[in-house]
Amino acid sequence: MNTFGGPQPAPPPGYSSNPPPPFRPSWAPSQPAPARMSPGKIVAVFVGVLLTVALIGGILVMLSAPPPPVPPCPPNQPCAPIPSLPPVAGGSPLPIATPRPQGSPGTLPTPGAPVPSTPTSDSPPVVANTLYTDSSLGYSFEYDPEVFDLTDHSDGSAVLSGQFFDTQIWVDATTADTSTSKMIEDELGFVDRFLIARVPDTDTYDALLGPSIGYVAGQGGVFSGTLTSRDGTPVAPGGVALISSTDGRITVAVVVIVGTPDARQGGETQEHAVRTAADDILKTFNWNAQ
Amino acid sequence: MKRARALEIALLTLALVGCGGAGGQTPAVGGAKSGPVGAAATAGVVSSDSDPSAAPQVLGPTPGDEQVNFSISLQLPGEAAMNAYLAGLTQPGSESYHKYLSADQFGARFGLPMTDVQRVVRWLAAAGLTTTTTPQRTSIGASGTADQVNELLGITLSDRLSSTGIRYHVPVGDPRVPRALAGQVATVVGLDTEPIQHPMSHIYTSGVPNSGLTPQLVASAYEITPLHDAGVLGQGMDIAIVSFDTYTDSDLRDFDRQMGISGAPDVKRVTLPGGPDSPGDGAGEVSLDLEVIRGIAPGAQITSYEGENSAEGLVPVIRRIVADGKAKIISNSWGSCENRNSKDAMAAEDRELAAAFAAGISYFSASGDDAAYDCRRVDISDNPFERDITPGVDWPAASDNVIAVGGTYLTVRQDGTYYDEAGWEEPLGGAGSGGGLSKYQQRPTWQQGAGVDNAQSNGKRQVPDVAGPADPSSGFFVLYTDPSQGQVSGRVGGTSAAAPFWSASMLLTQQYAQSQGVAQLGPLGPVLYQVASQQPPGAVFHDVIRGGNLLYQAGPGWDYATGLGTPRVTPLAQAIVALVKGQ
Fold first, then answer.
1. Counting C-beta atoms within 10 Å of the first and last residue's C-beta, which end of chain B has fewer, N or C?
2. Alpha carbon distance B322, B315 (integer Å)
């Protein structure tokens, strides 16, 4: 049985499906003035009046100026509403050029007319999440700050920790004279400091089917073992997935470590929930961010 | 840095200890998996939380008085002629070019004589069953009690309980049909009601950092705005969605209000026998379909055809849509791994799809969300961690009567215009755009063009045909009522979103065509390939050349992750209408 369409997990703590709070008025109500004022207060009032006059003047200047251009779709916010429709009576077709309440109707495109090229724009792409840039090696990626915290970073390395899962993600990079195989070997060396009895995870459910980073194909593997505490005491099952890729300039590894990987999160295991969240890092990985 | 990492890991494990209620010096918590992992090692996990992959429980015979619905798929004596006719339907110069057939005409031309249909009806009626016939004569719907059905077909219907708590029945034994009716009855379908049709949607209900693709943003990114500005909003056009669940009416009203849509027609609901009577786990899927279409074509009349979720559940749904004869666009975001369907069932469904194709209907179907490994979610043993990870495609996307819609990861600019797209793939999570080679269906003659003939081609149907935004990270804003959580909103992705995106975009194209004197565009699959061949790269499709689907890479021309690419809707509409008018 597939797990699509199954009950979704309850939102983790800190998540909210509520709409943002309503906008507050720009102006706060003024405080009531006292009956008598000291000289200092008189000066303050004078300054206040001066500022008020300046503000009113500024507003008048702004009102007389042409409005600034409003982007049709502000990033990260709902766009302006689409035009309203006239009521459709009885399902009968309306004339194509039915006037709409908002704006003026455009003209119908001409079939077979020369196809315009893709609209050009200098507008930068939307960055929906938090952008992490490593200037030393010139790469970047995005991570969701509502899911992961950046808990450590240095040149060529970043550590993200999950807010709702026992997980860490390592993003490491070095120059391309380190092969992907060597990178994986090195990463597993660090993993083995905290994960004992590490063995390849041969479950087909957990398999990496097409390892890549930033759409550059690489190699990877999945492992399972037991996480230990600082003194080496085994404490919980652990799962590890890692991928390494190179573009010929740098070699990158992404390592995902999950505690209690087979615990359920809705229709998926915790390991898969974390891996899916970590995919955002891979999808937004920019090999040439300089 | 590595030292700092060591500290972080230590904190991680301490956190685990805290969660588990054990002290720092406590011995190992639970048993680690030891490879290869068997059921014993994972049994604790499975039993601690209901696992949808667990084997179903056998409940015993289906109560004798329980109402059971199924279909008799009929022989099409004119099948060879039908195939030739369908091939010519979109071939200029062919005798059948653009001569679409109503359900009546299809039945009269390729179906059984009415006397033969009536023989089957009489056989069913004699057993006390009620029947539903439609003019296309592709199948007959039948309903009766379990006792009546058992006796008629010589089977025993047996109830099962899935691990998700859904009761369904399966036939024990092969259905028996009188030898005298062998020339009329092709197969009996619908007796197995295991709900295997799954929605192809990934839902992020909350906690997403942005609001997702709103109607205005979609219109801007994919150049739908010029059609909207010209008043092409879907008025007077009909579109059908295939549903195996239902929706909460107020959700669409709330969506309209939040998106500033007013005056849109109410959605019509057609509930088929065995269909849902209240929103269930698939409610989000139905709302996704409705709201994506509503945002792109707010003037269109949407009808949700809601059937019983079962292996052959498509048969009665498509039969009804074709018989109703209104919609020329069907959007389907449900499906299942091709391997999971019997050849008989797929043949029965393909007969219905053929009648839709002959009627000039464009049927857009999601290609699946498991990348090139569509059967990955199918359990193949009692061990839920053992899965089928051989390449596979989804059904009905693999049918050559269908336009299969794959998925992309979209990036837009801050001014709302298109920036970039990649084939949707999630290397760690395993999701991605469904695509690959069918195991059973032949590649249709119209599937031609740059990139179609490639190193993997083997003569079988290649999926998908086109693509649309599907990665949940660039998903659509959707609002729906979850039966357990109440109303939620957020970004929703999956090829479930891409299919209605294409359906609604092509509905606008049909409306635009009508305004230009083209009464009907017909099934658009062949047309899209013709247009792609005639236009320079990038002119009407965004040719997606990055990303892939975990097995196949996206690349110039057609590819297994994104097909021909994603649409520049207005230029594509112009090119389609010019092509059809010029033929």
1. C
2. 11
The residue in chain B having the minimum alpha-carbon distance to the alpha carbon of residue A124 is B413
Q: Which of A161, A283, A285 to mutate to test the interface with B (most CBs of B within 10 A)?
A: A283
Q: What does the block give as tokens for A43?
A: 């000066």
pLDDT in tens, B194-225: 887 777 665 443 322 367 999 999 999 999 99
- Per DSSP, A2 falls in state -
Which A-chain residues 114-173 have CB contacts (< 8 A) with chain B?
115-119, 121, 123-126, 128-129, 144-147, 151-154, 157, 159, 161, 166-168, 170
Selection from A262, A252, A256, A255 nearest residue A274 by Cα: A256
CB contact under 8 A, B373 and A257: no
3-state per-residue secondary structure call for B125-194: HHCCCEEEECCCCCEEEEEEEHHHHHHHHCCEEEEEECCCCCEEEEEECCCCCCHHHCCCEEEEECCCCC
Q: What is the pTM of this model?
A: 0.82
- CB burial class (10 A; 0-12, 13-18, 19+) of residue A200? exposed
Whether this model's ipTM surpasses 0.90 comes out as no
Q: How many CB atoms lie within 10 A of CB B64?
A: 13
Q: Which residues of B touch A75 (CB under 8 A)?
A: 210, 414
Taking the Cβ of residue A102 and every Cβ of chain B, the question of whether any pair is shorter than 8 Å is answered with: no
Task: Tell me whether residues A209 and B372 touch, CB distance under 8 A.
Answer: yes
pLDDT tens, residue by residue, B105-132: 999 999 999 999 999 999 999 999 999 9
The DSSP call for residue B432 is B
- Interchain pair B262, A85: CB under 8 A: yes
Give B362-403 pLDDT, tens digit per residue: 999 999 999 999 999 887 777 888 889 999 999 999 999 999
Cα–Cα distance, B396 to B550 (Å, whole number): 21
CA B281 to chain centre: 16
Burial of residue B318 (number of CB atoms within 10 Å: 0-12, 13-18, 19+): buried
Cβ-based contacts of A230 with chain B (< 8 Å): 10, 13-14, 24
Question: What is the identity of the amino acid at B375?
Answer: C
Contact with chain A for residue B12, Cβ under 8 A? yes
Rounded-to-integer distance, Cα B52 and Cα A36, Å: 76
